[in-house]
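Thread: quick sanity check before group meeting

JM: Hey all, I'm pulling together slides for Thursday and realized we never actually wrote out the predicted structure for the chain we discussed last week. Dropping the sequence here so it's in one place. If anyone has concerns about the input, flag it before I start.
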Amino acid sequence: MKKINAFFDSFNDAKVMSRGMWFYQLLAAFLGGIILGILIAPPRKMRVGCNNGNTSVHDSGCCEEDGECCCGKKED
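JM (edit): ok, ran it. Output follows.
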């Protein structure tokens, strides 16, 4: 128990950090946030670059009612 109390008492001591250490901590937090955001983000159902701005995907796989696909190919 004495070791645990000594460990928690050591948190009260002030410590000096260099600019490099602050930079590396901020960099690690930023990159960790990006990676965590990628892992948690829901998947998106969209086609990027199809039909100059039409990025929606319908159940039938076509963007138009006449059977023309999003990327300009006719369906059978």
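AS: nice. The helical segments are 2-9, 19-40. Residues 2-40 form one domain.
JM: adding both to the slides.
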